[in-house]
From TrEMBL, chains A, B:
UniProt protein name: Beta-hexosaminidase
EC assignment: 3.2.1.52
Domain Glycoside hydrolase family 20 catalytic: start-end pairs: 179-292, 322-454
Family membership: Belongs to the glycosyl hydrolase 20 family.
Pfam families: Glyco_hydro_20 (PF00728), Glycohydro_20b2 (PF14845)
Record key words, sorted: Glycoprotein, Glycosidase, Hydrolase, Signal
Domain Beta-hexosaminidase eukaryotic type N-terminal residue range list: 32-154
Origin organism lineage: Eukaryota, Viridiplantae, Streptophyta, Embryophyta, Tracheophyta
Organism: Brassica napus (Rape)
Signal peptide stretch: 1-23
Length: 503, 503
């Protein structure tokens, strides 16, 4: 809808036309992913000045460690990545064109501590003619980073004038996530993932506003993490260089944190832990039984506790799998004791659902669960059902990721309020640096919209968002993310020549 | 072999031990890809100073546009990419350890013009105890860039000390390519490749010392390039944004050029040119016959000439395909006339071999050919046979790429001297931003060694270089290049959990 000036009727007409985007067809023209909570736009055009500035007057937030400035610079770099901006737009040359001189960011909280559950909302206005600055308001710097992300998706390259422009201004966007936990699991035990690959994954997460990187670090096959107090543990790595030093792990957490992403570091015990014994064979019950670890041994608890005390992140996951039914009691004993240890280090606890299914009533009542169980009243839950949200299931098409609704089976409002969010899982049996990004994207983006966008704005029929998701997939490609075609399941090669938008 | 000090015998013993690497087993421990012409090493270790410097005293080359400095900075960035360098090594803290303070680069030519056939040789010495600087000598800055690349592959991260080290010093490397034309073809007509993707490909080419990017820009399916004098031509693109502005194309050429890579821009006429008519329908012979272009029309030649005059690079390829036998004469007429036009713009000419097979004796005698024909005396040739060097044939394993020897069927020395080199081809029917790099690598690397390394140093049985190629593939992953596992053909997903080095 365009805003037009009609003498004598202008105020009324403008109010009438430049209203909220309400029809589904309008939404689908918006090309923003995930869809914001509330969006309205006009019909004008503005160009970004080649000296596009960040202005923070009036902001309580002083950007002590440069998180905002870096985010702003990254945003500008990414909108200028896919074509050379050779046209000139600045205050002297703009003439009659509407020039956007910069972005005015106002953040009300002065802290940059990344706390789970903190306010991620933002308001973005781009922009009125009187004010040649876009306006971004947020409670926290992490809300502001989400606002910058949305702003970047409004920017387009004008192929004729060769400048960055924003169409359909003025934009008025008010946005906040539906769920606070929006996660992606990656697995560095089945295949080692070098640091640049992990950073590429983290950057691509920010494009879809995912905010939890669940790092499944070790498992049966390899133990690639340095634990300073038990230096032989990482002898369980595939090779000396396929490992993360303590500083590498801290770098990952820091890189993610500065982008508003929590890192949930997961270390499995006592099952899935064969690789621990490569450096410390006494952890194995015997030479012939190397899994699970020996839960009758205090050493097992000592080493688990030390691993948990690495203090990489706020949450730790104790993933506990049952070995055999005859050891049910040993399993329960281990889990309860491990929970106590974790709790004593100040951690929140998340378990996989098997523990709930087996002895849920004995667990720490504050436990949250990775959950695919619909019927049980399991308290705080994070949806992660393998039939729909496991990315390694490459037969699962993006439509199923999009349609996977946490509240589909939960009608009770109180139980709904206990759903923290959800997580897509990129298990690593067939995933390494060569194919991880095309297996994650764009299907994880489909899930990301399910977790961010208000329920009423989501499409009932996923096929209705095909065009918008295709545009987003092509945007990912333009940003150097190897997102696969939409057609087919996961990581299918394009099956014929054609436009990115049609594949 | 280690260099050891034995009093009274030191000079003789050192000479004896630190000799040239001669046995194949020694070569395979070197972990350098492609293998240099001459290599010797010792048994010591040096650490890179955290203030590792570039020094150019005595060099005739003044680095007018920063090509050397940028190359040096890129080299340092890439060796520090995969782990956090948290240990400290500088002149004050090195104690007894051998510290490498920097790299002394001496270049004898003052020009930085990238000319085909220019000297790409270099000499690298790392380093004697007396001189805490590695020494790199080259005739041209592009030879020096190759030397920097080799230097980067000597660098390893010490997981214990957490610094960059070089093992087996002193190194003495003398190197130059076997062939001057070492190419990779990419195809941006079947699928548009965004600029960041092309830059990633160019960077990965430098790691294997490939030096020609054969850019197959347009074809039947799309015309994505801006031709300023015929602005409607790029209406044949898939969409407005899936296009390269003139500045984008110049940026690609510049980005590659600063890395020592020639860009060979290819525009096919009169066949494979349906997309031209989207903007200029009069180029089509009729509504029902849209390919090839109408060779009876002067407009066809005018528009072809203008396209060739873009001056993006020194060479242009006129790829001419026959449509039907009844038009053989029209085809020959077009090719000869097009060659004249190209020649008049100062271009060298390369044709695909069909023209040679059809009317080779009438062609410009300076023509070179993309060639898979073994028997004919076709003059200057660039090997590019589809049964072994087409990367889109994903059933072709890396061993076949490695083993494809230009001189296998040519025993006559004079004909051997006319072989300029070779090129692997990444045709784009099933290739886009999501899967291009895992389809190119590591198989293109196998071909790159065939084109760089002296014939006598190549393995007769490709399986002998498996370990060294696996290490190189993992190095590519650590540098953010999505190189696929070695096992299987092209772009196979890893089929089980395991070490990068074993897949």
């Amino acid at each position: 809808m365009r805003a037009t000036k009609i003498s004598g009727l202008a105020p009324l007409f403008v109010l009438f036309i430049a209203g909220a985007v309400s029809s589904f067809e309008d939404i689908e023209k918006l090309r923003i992913w995930p869809l914001p909570a509330e969006v309205s736009h006009g019909g004008r055009r503005m160009y970004l000045s080649e000296d596009f500035k960040l202005v923070t007057e009036g902001s309580k937030y002083e950007d002590p460690s440069g998180i905002l400035k870096e985010g702003f610079d990254r945003m500008l770099a990414v909108v200028r990545l896919s074509h050379v901006v050779s046209g000139h737009r600045n205050s002297s040359s703009s003439g009659g064109s509407a020039l956007l001189e910069g972005l005015h960011v106002i953040i009300s909280s002065s802290t940059d501590e990344l706390e789970y559950g903190a306010d991620e909302s933002y308001k973005l206005v781009v922009a009125s003619r009187e004010k040649p600055y876009a306006q971004l308001e947020a409670k926290s710097v992490y809300g502001a980073l989400h606002g910058l992300q949305t702003f970047s998706q409004l920017c387009h390259f004008n192929m004729k004038k060769k400048v960055i422009e924003i169409l359909m201004t003025p934009w008025n966007i008010t946005d906040q996530p539906r769920f606070s936990y929006r996660g992606l699991l990656i697995d560095t035990s089945r295949h080692y993932l070098p640091l640049p690959v992990m950073k590429n994954v983290i950057d691509s997460m920010t494009y879809t506003k995912l905010n939890v990187l669940h790092w499944h670090i070790v498992d049966t096959q390899s133990f690639p993490l340095e634990i300073p107090s038990y230096p032989k543990l990482w002898n369980g790595a595939y090779s000396p260089t396929q490992r993360y030093t303590f500083e590498d792990a801290a770098e990952i957490v820091n890189y993610a944190g500065r982008r508003g992403i929590h890192v949930l570091a997961e270390i499995d015990v006592p099952g899935h832990a064969l690789s621990w014994g490569k450096g410390y064979p006494s952890l194995w019950p015997s030479k012939n039984c190397q899994e699970p670890l020996d839960v009758s041994s205090d050493f097992t608890f000592k080493i688990s506790a030390r691993s948990l005390s690495l203090n990489l992140s706020t949450w730790e996951v104790t993933k506990l799998k049952k070995h055999r039914k005859t050891e049910a009691e040993a399993y329960e004993y281990f889990v309860l004791r491990a929970q106590k240890i974790a709790s004593s280090h100040g951690y929140e606890i998340i378990n996989w659902e098997e523990t709930f299914n087996n002895f849920g009533n004995k667990l720490n009542p504050k436990t949250a669960w990775y959950w695919s169980c619909w019927e049980s009243d399991c308290g705080r839950c994070i949806m992660s059902n393998q039939d729909k949200w496991y990315l390694d299931h490459i037969d699962t098409p993006w439509q199923m990721f999009y349609a996977n609704e946490p509240f589909e089976m939960i009608k009770d409002e109180k139980r709904q309020s206990l759903v923290l969010g959800g997580e897509v899982c990129m298990w690593g049996e067939h995933i390494d640096a060569s194919d991880i990004q095309q297996t994650i994207w764009p299907r994880a983006a489909a899930a990301a919209e399910r977790l961010w966008t208000p329920y009423t704005k989501l499409a009932e029929n996923p096929d209705k968002v095909t065009t918008r998701l295709a545009h987003f997939r092509c945007l990912l490609n333009e940003r150097g993310v190897a997102a696969a075609p939409l057609v087919g399941g996961g990581r299918v090669a394009p099956f014929e020549p054609g436009s990115c938008l049609a594949q």
